[in-house]
Amino acid sequence: xxxxxxxxxxxxxxxxxxxxxxxxxxxxxxxxxxxxxxxxxxxxxxxxxxxxxxxxxxxxxxxxxxxxxxxxxxxxxxxxxxxxxxxxxxxxxxxxxxxxxxxxxxxxxxxxxxxxxxxxxxxxxxxxxxxxxxxxxxxxxxxxxxxxxxxxxxxxxxxxxxxxxxxxxxxxxxxxxxxxxxxxxxxxxxxxxxxxxxxxxxxxxxxxxxxxxxxxxxxxxxxxxxxxxxxxxxxxxxxxxxxxxxxxxxxxxxxxxxxxxxxx
Length: 264
Ligand code: IPD
Ligand code: CA
Ligand code: CA
Hints:
CATH architecture of the largest domain: 2-Layer Sandwich
Largest sheet: 7 strands, mixed
Helix content: 25-40%
CATH class of the largest domain: Alpha Beta
CATH topology of the largest domain: Fructose-1,6-Bisphosphatase, Chain A, domain 1
Bound molecules: D-MYO-inositol-1-phosphate, calcium ion
């Protein structure tokens, strides 16, 4: 398997799926929308996009399996598994807010080896593979070199279904607002992380994310020279429902803040 070639195939596929999603913008009726659980919306758009991804990714790597948000495939691969969020930012999409993305990662054993995030409405495709570099539409990207929170622009996602840790989270948010230039909540964790990878955001934090929200974004950030950890500063971020991402220079200040409020 040539990882770089595979990565470019996934870039092309993600763009195709993104074009389908964009064509459906504004066409989804209220009766097409299902609430999977509290505030977790889905429509035929997410499902059709995922079906296409599963079909084509299987053709690209027949022995692979899937961890896919909408449950289109439950096949698990022995060595390779795709981690797929066909539409990250569904609430934005359904409300006519332009920030949403297609997010695809490939895991070999317990290592993520490829990640693609396609931000549909900006036609921006972010991609990276293990021990390579990270790219945005063919140009290499790097995390920012901001080294103090007071000069940083941070991103986050507000809790919307899991409020168990919301008191601690809002304490953290207050500190983030006070200590940084500002904080954004743009509604697609994959885009938040892609923006950390290319230096638009200096740091990102959110709890209760799933593997498909963060897998592709994480390898983008790592290959762009940044760090992803859980709230203790450790490695349990893929399934641990805690994501902290930043550049190396800001890591100590930002992670200490997060650890103090939410690291228990
Ligand atoms: C959501 C988005 C959002 C984040 C949520 C995710 P979805 O994914 O990434 O930014 O705050 O936690 O669930 O449901 O649109 O795929
Ligand atoms: Ca998602
Ligand atoms: Ca989704």
